[in-house]
Amino acid sequence: MTFHGIGERLPTLVPDGPAHLGTVPPFWAFAGRAFGGFSSAAALTGAAAFAPSGSVALAARISFVSPTLVGPFRIEATDVRLGRSSSAVNVRLTQDGQTRVTLASWFVRPDLLPAPEPTPPPRADPSACPGTWRDTKNAFDSAFERRTIHFPATSDAFALHGPRVELWIRRSGGPPPDAVSRQADDLMLFDAHLAETVIEGLHADRTRSFSIDLSVTWAGGPWIRSATPEGADDGGDAWRRLTTVGSAAGRIGTSGGTLTDVSGSTIATATQLVAVGPPRSDEGGRKR
């Protein structure tokens, strides 16, 4: 299976007996460590290979056990329970025999995804919203295009901005051709911004702060229809509205987020636990 949307920057998972092999390229890393959204997306794509053909993810829970590094990785199933309408698939991503990421997921037929919760369409049209410095924070951030609705003007302004941010965001390389690849993209979008709301809001040391986990649940709606052979692919590269709210008590923070389409229909919701480092003493470090 292949990650799509940014060409050669996204690797192919190659079958290797009961497992799948891949590689983390430098593009998706900072200081030798993989972006957590990339390792999450790799794990979900690997899990989909063990699920029945045509299934989509209903829910996924990712635990970041230890940092994933640039270089080869292996994805193997730890538990697979296949059913007629739903299947449980648990996998782990390893490097050098060490577990880096675990993923517990449920896959279902696309028609079994719950109906999306409607929300009021946003008043701000993407074309009327300004761009943001956030597209250049890390090299891999250029994989997505952002427009600000409610977002700090600089990284330093997070502490004064408040715990809630809102962005229009879409992939830069066009739509992935299938639903699971789009769901892998959703993991990237959430992981790029959920922990950030907490870490930057507290002005915490980025090099000593990190995501502990990521839990995502998907809904049905227009996005899934456009990602099936029967549907017109008219929504795969559309703007999505990402809203996140974070809070922290001591050294552990929590963040929640929602992805909606331009009509206001919910695509997915997510929560994340964050380990918060000490207050930042300089500007040399960055998150993962």
TrEMBL record:
Highest rank taxon of the organism: Bacteria
Region described as Disordered: spans on this chain: 112-132
Biased composition range(s): Pro residues: 113-124
Domain Acyl-CoA thioesterase-like N-terminal HotDog: 25-107
Matching InterPro entries: Acyl-CoA_hotdog, HotDog_dom_sf, TesB_ACOT8-like_N
Protein name: Acyl-CoA thioesterase
Lineage: Bacteria, Bacillati, Actinomycetota, Actinomycetes, Cryptosporangiales
